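Take just one protein record:
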Amino acid sequence: MARIAGVDLPRDKRVEIGLTYIYGIGRTSSNRILAEAGVDPNTRVRDLTSEEVKKISAVIDETQVVEGDLRREIQLN
């Protein structure tokens, strides 16, 4: 199971769908992240290499506010 942004992604789903399990990432964001990372959206999560996971994590860290930080930001409003 790939772990990105503190979330275990389901192994049998396509990466495009698996990323939507992360709070703050929808289908559009997922596709943009994968395009920036150079990963095929139709790849299954179980088939991701560790290098691809690192690329995806790096893009998310640079461009998105997700999970705990996003929840905290919303709660403060």
Notes: The mean pLDDT is 92. The longest strand covers residues 3-4. Residues 50-63 form the longest helix (14 residues). Strands lie at 3-4, 7-8.
